[in-house]
Write a structure and sequence with these properties.
This protein has 320 residues and is of the alpha/beta class. 44% of the residues lie in helices and 19% in strands. It has two domains: 5-144, NAD(P)-binding Rossmann-like Domain (Rossmann fold), CATH 3.40.50; 146-314, L-2-Hydroxyisocaproate Dehydrogenase, Chain A, domain 2 (Alpha-Beta Complex), CATH 3.90.110.10. The strands form four sheets. Strands 3-2-1-4-5-6 form a six-stranded parallel sheet, with helices on both faces. Strand 2, helix 2 and strand 3 (60-63) form a beta-alpha-beta unit. The protein binds adenosine-5-diphosphoribose.
Length: 320
Amino acid sequence: MARAKIALIGAGMIGGTLAHIAAREELGDVILFDIAEGTPQGKALDIAEASAVFGKDVALKGANAYEDIAGADVCIVTAGVPRKPGMSRDDLLGINLKVMKAVGEGIKAHAPNAFVICITNPLDAMVWALQQFSGLPKEKVIGMAGVLDSARFAYFLAEATGVSVEDIHAWTLGGHGDDMVPMVRHSTVGGLPLPELVKQGWLTQDKLDAIVERTRKGGGEIVALLKTGSAFYAPAESAIAMATSYLKDKKRVLPCATYLSGQYGLNDLYVGVPVVIGAGGAEKIVEFETNDAEKAMFAKSVESVKGLMEACKAIDSSLV
Ligand code: APR
């Protein structure tokens, strides 16, 4: 059977890391696409040479023409600009919306059967726009944010409790902004929901509150440290988990920016919810039971996403 073809649209920090992981995992052949000439070719060649050391058989190619993504099974989109210190994800909207238009048209023309994972920020609005620009089915276009935000949440919990990250299931829903919704009651350490963990003295309520806050601002913490861009290792790992679940039909339940049609009482927008990812793409949304406080946080986060969608519509009147 032919190897899967993975097109990485954007060969910057996340794109290069994605290519490296995809090759090491032998997930499929990789096309690294970018508008910058030389960058995708150089990174592809560098990783291809490394494959002779790590011993995996994959073909890697750098490209500046959309023709090269033809027939891709998966497209992972990181094209655009990242944050610099002092910027919010929303500050990227104007530039990255134009990039999504070009990328969406390229995917529509050359890889209409792909499963598309968007990483470009501001995420929930960009994936919504990308779906419209590409015209692909809504279940085949999804956004990566929740896996990353939940991984940050899980890591901070592991650090605070001394429990392996493998035994922590953390969930962060809503939009990929500072008002995202870490689901404290639904997240578990060794099977114990976090409120129970506090009751049993594993960590204090104050510490848990601080972890929730740090999770919400997790992206900004990295931007402030790096100074020249935003996180790339954890975002790349997160998208690879999503791509793997699709390519291997694993049906993992992952928190992703997914198109909602009635679930969580919402319609016609993308926001982070747990979803089964399998060969059909975003196959089934898992609806968590939520209390009034969680509903209010979710509603606030959704309002921010809707605000970004309105800002996109004001820039590009083709968006509905
Ligand atoms: N088509 C293709 N590639 C493009 C385009 C375009 N129209 N515009 C920009 N690019 C490329 C740039 O040339 C660059 O190589 O996108 C790449 C982005 O890479 P980085 O600047 O290194 O950004 P990165 O850290 O990878 O983040 C990319 O993901 O997490 C989000 O906020 C982040 O929106 C940002 C995106």
